[in-house]
Design a protein that fits this description.
The chain has about 140 residues and is of the alpha+beta class. The chain contains two helices and six strands; from the N terminus they run αββαββββ.
Length: about 140
């Protein structure tokens, strides 16, 4: 592995830790600021619901019940320069548990693609899915 690739992987891991801490704190405590985390044209797929545009995404989050996220696993990797025209971009994978209002906590998985915009990281794509067991109806 070249030193450049190793350096980008290390950077992706550091950025993922900082970014996810900010993301889940904002989601749980400061939802009125969610739009600042997304590109203007950002895309959210939340449990099968698609929302595009940072202002619409913010409204979507404001309409959700209050939440408390706990991260169990976190992984990140750089996206190849050739795939994103050299734009610094990372893919982040998160799993954990989330409690909405006073309901039973549920497992979730979330995948982000984030890109550098100036000195800020912005979400290009965000895919969130609650991990619910399959029932006979879902087969």
């Amino acid at each position: 592995m070249t030193q450049i690739v190793k350096s980008k992987i290390d950077q992706a891991c550091r950025v993922a830790e900082e970014f996810t801490k900010l993301y889940y704190e904002t989601s749980d405590k400061r939802r009125h600021l969610m739009s600042k985390l997304y590109l203007d044209s950002g895309l959210l797929a939340w449990n099968g619901n698609g929302v595009s545009g940072n202002e619409r995404i913010q409204k979507f989050f404001i309409d959700l019940p209050t939440s408390d996220h706990i991260i169990n696993t976190l992984d990140a990797q750089p996206v190849l320069d050739s795939a994103v025209n050299g734009q610094l971009t990372f893919m982040i994978q998160v799993s954990g548990t989330v409690r909405y209002q006073d309901r039973i906590p549920k497992s979730f998985q979330q995948n982000f693609i984030i890109t550098a915009q100036g000195d800020k990281w912005k979400i290009v794509s965000d895919c969130f899915r609650l991990q619910e067991p399959l029932t006979n109806d879902n087969k």
